[in-house]
Amino acid sequence: MTDIADRSHDVGAVRRALAIGPGSPREARTIDITTLGRRTGRPRRIEIWFHHVDGRWYLSGMPVPRSWHANLSAHPHFIFHLKNGVRADLPATAVPVKDPSVRHRVLSAVVALQDDPGLRIRVTQRQRLEDWLKHSPLIEIVFDDERLRPPLS
């Protein structure tokens, strides 16, 4: 899948686009990802939000099964497409987050977005952190370009 990746991106501009925070607008956190289908192996592109928590990047979703998550579980290499302001196709690897303390920290930040008036998530009822902790997919995004990775701790 790396043949569709653009390796000539402006690293500084990409870093700035990835540096979203709780007050960042919808457009700043909206990206596309291209995964390989779990069964077909064909590229599948979807729109999704990414999250930046404690210097790392994540994908998550409502606490129900997600096709993109199944695809990444089968084929962890994918393309992260920045598309708002900065345009770049970034090869990455999906790393499942299993550590309960990391899941709690990241999913707490994700669920808190429903309280931000500028980001109001369209839900019919308030989402509960407990449901997300039990049932939501959570993967860390590790960019292939080492210049985009967080410093080693």
TrEMBL record:
What is the native source organism of this protein?
Answer: Micromonospora trifolii
Q: What is this protein called?
A: Nitroreductase/quinone reductase family protein
What domain of life?
A: Bacteria
Q: Which InterPro entries match?
A: F420H2_quin_Rdtase, Split_barrel_FMN-bd
- One Pfam annotation, family name? F420H2_quin_red
